[in-house]
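Support request from a user on the community tier.

User writes: "When I paste my structure tokens into the form, the page sometimes reloads and wipes my input. The last time it worked, I copied everything first. Here is what I submitted, just in case something in the input itself triggers the reload:"
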């Protein structure tokens, strides 16, 4: 791989990893969010900051790139020896940590930590409805990401947290999660039993408590189960946690909207990803969070950063000339012609892809002041710290 040659101005990324407290990396499926998050975290650690990268997916490849067996709900430190082995240095107090959000375990921890009484925590954790919904309910993952962020940012244990998010529409949910979880708790059946109870206050709750047995036995006769009793119990016990959830959600939302946080949107230059990026950009501004820039990943272009012309024949011919002279002894005229023809076809194909990518990037940047940083399509998968460091070189070098 040759020297980095990012064409866009990279101030935003460089200053974000040096100064911000929270970086959120968003984008559609498979564009390179997890890899970019890890590369940014790695670069910040090299600068001397204590950094945590929080991923949402199991990201096994990332775990192995970081020399970790797996990622789970506990932050794990990337061995400083691994940096040395791969020829990388960590300045000063630089540390790199990684973890994966485990929705179910985070939810259990939240219940244990914030239930006002241990018996209440046990009651919720043992509740059938809780066990069913705690990792399956729409919005729970995003809500738990919020709770996890609340815990992680509370005690300034890390100088910087880089948050990797799930693909686009879920990432939007993530931005919205504090409100969404409230909506879930206030919606449908829940609202029927629960919302009214909250509105009507204590008298309704008393009524509900008294009637639960009656209604529940009615339900049991119809459904043959204890669903209603469990549901009523769950939402009754959740009542005492409701205000806490709201408070923490508000705090995280404020942090996401503050100048301590910067969002980066990752996309690939293919039209479908670009369309999703446009949609996402429209949405992100409506959430009142700051966008640091757009990272266009896996761009087809030459190692020196140049984009070949669409016919590209002169470049192709010069490559072939070099090849022919370096393999002069082998240069049987007919064989060489076959190789030359194939090379020209491959070259033209690559040139076309490169042109298309630049066209897409041109459309994305038209009339927009947002910083756009291009990262080339690497020949090989990114599978170690060095690969992450190479990617961050492209993100950070002007
Ligand atoms: N610039 C690049 N060149 C080559 N390969 C890359 C590049 N960027 C990322 N990759 C590879 O692409 C794959 C997908 O990347 P990654 O897992 O980071 O995407 P993602 O956006 O997090 O995906 P998902 O939406 O599924 O979570 C990985 O194998 C990664 O190593
Ligand atoms: Mg990912």
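"...and here is what came back when it finally went through:"
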């Amino acid at each position: 791989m040759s020297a980095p040659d990012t064409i866009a101005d990279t101030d935003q990324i460089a200053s974000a990893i040096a100064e911000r407290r929270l970086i959120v990396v968003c984008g559609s499926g498979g564009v390179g969010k997890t890899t970019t998050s890890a590369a940014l975290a790695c670069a910040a650690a090299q600068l001397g900051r204590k950094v945590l990268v929080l991923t949402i997916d199991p990201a096994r490849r990332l775990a192995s790139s970081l020399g970790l067996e797996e990622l789970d709900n506990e932050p794990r430190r990337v061995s400083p020896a691994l940096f040395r082995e791969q020829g990388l240095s960590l300045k000063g107090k630089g540390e790199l940590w990684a973890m994966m959000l485990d929705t179910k375990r985070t939810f259990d921890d939240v219940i244990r930590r914030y239930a006002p009484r241990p018996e209440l925590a046990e009651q919720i954790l043992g509740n059938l409805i809780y066990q069913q919904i705690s990792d399956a309910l729409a919005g729970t993952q995003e809500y738990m990401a919020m709770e996890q962020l609340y815990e992680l940012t509370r005690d300034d244990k890390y100088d910087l947290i880089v948050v990797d998010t799930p693909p686009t529409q879920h990432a939007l949910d993530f931005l919205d999660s504090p409100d969404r979880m409230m909506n879930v708790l206030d919606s449908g059946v829940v609202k029927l039993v629960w919302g009214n109870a909250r509105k009507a206050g204590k008298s309704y709750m008393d009524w509900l408590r008294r009637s639960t047995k009656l209604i529940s036995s009615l339900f049991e006769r119809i459904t043959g189960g204890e669903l209603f009793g469990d549901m009523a119990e769950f939402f009754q016990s959740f009542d005492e946690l409701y205000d806490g959830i709201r408070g923490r959600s508000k705090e995280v939302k404020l942090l996401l909207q503050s100048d301590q946080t910067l969002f980066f949107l990752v996309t690939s230059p293919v039209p479908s990803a670009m369309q999703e990026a446009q949609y996402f950009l429209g949405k992100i501004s409506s959430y009142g969070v700051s966008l640091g820039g757009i990272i266009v990943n896996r761009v087809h272009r030459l190692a020196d950063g140049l984009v070949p012309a669409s016919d590209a024949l002169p470049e192709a011919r010069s490559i072939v000339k070099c090849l022919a002279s370096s393999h002069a002894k082998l240069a049987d005229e007919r064989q060489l012609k076959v190789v030359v023809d194939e090379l020209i076809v491959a070259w033209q194909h690559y040139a076309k892809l490169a042109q298309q990518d630049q066209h897409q990037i041109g459309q994305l940047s038209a009339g927009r002041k947002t910083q756009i940083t291009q990262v080339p399509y690497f020949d090989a998968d990114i599978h170690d710290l060095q690969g992450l460091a190479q990617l961050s070189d492209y993100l950070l070098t002007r």
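Agent notes: The reload is a front-end session timeout and is unrelated to the input. The longest helix spans residues 333-365. The chain has two domains: 11-304+359-396, 313-358. Escalated to web team.
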